[in-house]
Structures are given as C-alpha cells and as structure tokens.
Amino acid sequence: MGNPAFADLPEMVLGPLADRSDEEWHAAPAGKWNAAQIVEHLALGLEWSGKGFEERRARDPMTRRPRTLLQRLANTLVMGLGVFPPGRKAPQASIPAAYVPRASAETHFREGVARFLELEKLLLPARRADLFVKHPRLGDLTLEEWERFHVIHARHHARQIRRRVGR
Description:
This protein is mostly helical. It contains six helices and two strands. Strands 1-2 form a two-stranded antiparallel ribbon. Strand 1 and strand 2 form a beta hairpin. Helix 3 packs parallel to helix 5 (102-123) and helix 3 (35-56) runs antiparallel to helix 6 (143-165). The longest helix has 23 residues, at 143-165. It is globular.
C-alpha cells in the first residue's frame, strides 16, 4: 500500500548526513538553507499534511475540488516531471527557523515519516480516493498523492543536501 519509495525517505534525506559533524549540518552558502534547515523544512511539510489527514479521517467521503489552471500546471511540473520551478518561495508554514538543532530536525523528520506510515495503515485502501488535504500549490491531494509529493520534494532537497556535504 502507499508509495514504496516513501519508506525510504529517511535514507534518502538523512543518509548523506550520517557521520557528519554539527558544523557540516549547519554549513550553507550565503542566503541558502543549511542541511538542518532543509531537513526541518521537509519535516514541517510532513507534519502539516499528516495533521490534515488525521483531522479529516473521521469525516464523510470527500470529492476533490476542481483544480485551477495554475494548479494543473504545477501538478504537471512537480508530480509529472519532478521539477520545482526556480524562484518559488516555500509556503510560510514550511519555512524553518534561522537555527535548527541537528537532533531536533532529524527527530522531527523521522516522526513525520512514521506518522504517514501509520496513516497508511489506518486509511488505505478504504479512504484511497475520498479523503483529501489541500496542497498550497497543487490543490487537493490524496494520502498516496501526498506521499508521492513528499518523495519528489525530498529527492529535490536531498540533492541540495548532498551538494552541501560533498556527497
């Protein structure tokens, strides 16, 4: 059930940071997020979307709202091609603090992944097509679509992490 690659998120994101010093976790080019902030950004997205499913899971079946033209375009780019258009700012709720302790970012991220894996057990397959949480740019997404988004999003940021730490 769910997205098999989703369970691999901790290795994808945290693997390049294994055995790295706190200094390496907090190194970044000027004006860019460091690895701890990137991990926290991913954790915030997992937390927000996971909470949405937890809050809605007892509701009656839902119907996806029609997507706007911009949402359809964003879906094609992100979900279809795995491309995040340059220059787009992260939604405010997913912007990490200026300083994020390494341990708290890692724990927060692992908890977010675990939350989704628990939601899979609770919601799939019964609520596969009738439970949605709105993504700020992509519109209403199912649990499995959110998992797919999180994999694509984590892959994008894992490349940045590998550049930061030279892996």
